[in-house]
Amino acid sequence: MDSVSASARIRIALAGCVALLAATAVLAGTVVSAWAYPLINTAVAATLIVIAVKAGVTREAIGLIVGRRTILAALIGLGCVAAVLTVGWVLPPIREVFTASPAASISSGGLLWAVLIRVPFGTVLLEEVAFRGVLPALLGFNGKQWRWGPMLGASALFGLFHIFPALQQGKCDDLAVHSLFCGAGPVFAPIAVMTVAMGLGLLLCLVRHIGGGLLAPFAVHTAANSAGYILAWASPV
């Protein structure tokens, strides 16, 4: 009876977390102003953790641990991000994406807001807690052995979570960041973007597994997104 009750709690918690994330995605994509993202997403991240813990999920399964392995994985991941972005920066087609980004015209204050607040607390914290921590744990990941089911399930939901940004990517306008996939058409372009997001989510799941905690993917994700702002801001007009 206890095991059945425990399974029921996990299922209810999973459904509640998915519903909360769906509501958050809809609100963020429609009515919530950008300045409110850090407040709302941090609150949602904390709520997800509470729901998972109340359902019986351990801190280790969620990834709320930090050790040498976690720090080492974070540092290696940061090095890989720096290497990839450096190569991309010297390639004209990739640099054009940064130049055409809306971030290329932001002020110094706007850059600091984006890098120090908007990215880590308005985007990355929620996504890492949800899709590399809480959801894999609720789907059966124990924080130790790699399991494809929980990782693929959480990564698929991560792709769906990007539905509204994906719809923007299908636009064939003068912003390169909106036209990367526009050649695929208004239907397949969003699908392509969400598929890419799913792949990146799975890669971040691997980083989390290697590091044993959420700090590693949080650092890599923050560095990648923040570097996008920095490189766009530094791009020649």
What's the helix and strand layout?
Elements (H helix, E strand, L loop, with lengths): L1 H29 L6 H18 L4 H4 L5 H22 L2 H9 L7 H31 L9 H14 L1 H7 L6 H4 L5 H27 L3 H20 L3
Helix pairs in contact: 1-2, 1-6, 2-6, 4-10, 4-11, 5-11, 6-7, 6-11, 7-10, 8-10, 10-11
Overview of the structural elements:
The protein has 237 residues and is an all-alpha fold. The protein is 78% helix and 0% strand. The longest helix is centred in the middle third of the chain and has 31 residues, at 108-138. It is globular, with a radius of gyration of 18 Å. The N and C termini lie far apart (66 Å). The relative contact order is 0.16. Mean pLDDT is 88; it is low at 173-177.
Strand count: 0
The coarse overall form would be globular
Tell me about the largest β-sheet: none
Which spans have pLDDT < 50 for at least 5 consecutive residues? 173-177
SSE ordering: HHHHHHHHHHH
Return the structural class: mainly alpha
Structural Rg: 18 Å
Q: Strand percentage, roughly?
A: under 5%
Number of helices: 11
| Average predicted confidence as pLDDT | 88
Helix content: over 70%
Oligomer: single chain
Termini separation comes to 66 Å
